[in-house]
Amino acid sequence: MYSFTEENYLKTIYKLSELHSKNISTNAIAQIIQTKAASVTDMVKRLSDKKLIRYEKYKGVSLTEKGKKVALDTIRKHRIWESFLHTKLKFGWDEVHEIAEQLEHIKSEVLIDRLDEFLGFPTRDPHGDPIPSKTGSIPKNTYKILADMMEDEQVVMNGVLDHSPIFLQYLSKLKLEIGTVLLIIEKIEYDNSMTVKINGKTVQLSNNVTQNILVIPDARK
Amino acid sequence: MYSFTEENYLKTIYKLSELHSKNISTNAIAQIIQTKAASVTDMVKRLSDKKLIRYEKYKGVSLTEKGKKVALDTIRKHRIWESFLHTKLKFGWDEVHEIAEQLEHIKSEVLIDRLDEFLGFPTRDPHGDPIPSKTGSIPKNTYKILADMMEDEQVVMNGVLDHSPIFLQYLSKLKLEIGTVLLIIEKIEYDNSMTVKINGKTVQLSNNVTQNILVIPDARK
DNA sequence: AAATAAATTTAGACTAACCTAAAAAAATAA
DNA sequence: TTATTTTTTTAGGTTAGTCTAAATTTATTT
Prior knowledge:
Strand order of the largest sheet of chain A: 3-8-4-5-6-7
CATH architecture of the largest domain in chain A: Roll
Oligomer: homodimer
Shape of chain A: globular
Order of helices and strands of chain A: HHHEEHHHEEHEEEHE
Distance between the termini of chain A: 50 Å
CATH class of the largest domain in chain A: Mainly Beta
Radius of gyration of chain A: 19 Å
Mean pLDDT of chain A: 95
CATH topology of the largest domain in chain A: SH3 type barrels
């Protein structure tokens, strides 16, 4: 059984690996875990001793299969709990992360299985992120970034890259949530902003926003 | 905010206080927390520094109002989670305690409020134990012990004193659960056992068992 | 390629929560 | 009431996870 801290390190390394694919640096981990680089070096040595990661001094770390399994298991729990909080307890998508950060460390395999069943085996969490299966398989995202779409295309919002409450609250205010249909009216070259139509309403989205929204082309169009 | 360990100590002291009403000894705590007396002395000093308990060397401890609040809050969370596990996730009453031991330490007031609401504001957990209110009030048990009832009385099972899985599983096997109606057929003086009728079936209950079952007189009789 | 800057690791300390072994106090028995 | 047993506390250590400050390695400039 692994500690809260160990699970958090492994989860963080997994997420960073998804983005950078290279070896993950001590500093990158420190920034996310909100700790000091020296503490990360310490922890990373212990995780390496337990064969959960590969670590070479000054060269960064990467997950072993064993470590990846623990990371995916933790992410699975996190996302199932988020789904529970959202669909059953009516928490907003901007509120679920923080509580799930705690719940993901509860030790009980049967608990998460029952919860999964209770929720009807969801495949995505409230932010559109895929929920890893029990065996640790996770569907690759085939989503596109809204910023890359063309004028006149119609797309369906399917996820976000930025999970911060502020960003999510802003999207909620725009009535922009998972499943919302977007029509791209115009792309402004000057600042890379975008004019889109959401439920009949025309709104202006900055590049900062469109870079963090994941979409798929709308089948209906 | 208090640590898992602190909450567990306070909860334990509260429960022991309910039973003995006197000052609680180091050894009694050690036995329940599954630790050594020396460790308890350590912890008890720290809890005393934080004004959560009153502690005098060699004289045992008692909760302050502040400590009692934390204890009741933890018990509230424990019992609400147990109710959730039982009524929504279909865990047996012998299975809920262990998982709730972890869940009770999740830090979020709104989470427990939402869960409470989701469950329809239950007043008792799956073992019949009362759930403390948000303000920390808890109904006094007016239940009687089955062993003390008279021949020919009809009673309703309303709780247990022994919460061990083995005992609870035994009761389940007898189809004896919260709400079950019992008719006392005969009390055997020799070994203080009891012959009772449960749903038309006659069974023999040892003194050990009847001492751990809480009942109320059946209104229907 | 040397100098400087940035990232990483080491060394040494801290805290919470635990431990064992020995000492001290309280309770019980003779 | 003294002697013995039991309970509790103290003293000194351990581990996980953290920290700061200094040393070392790697990366970047000039």
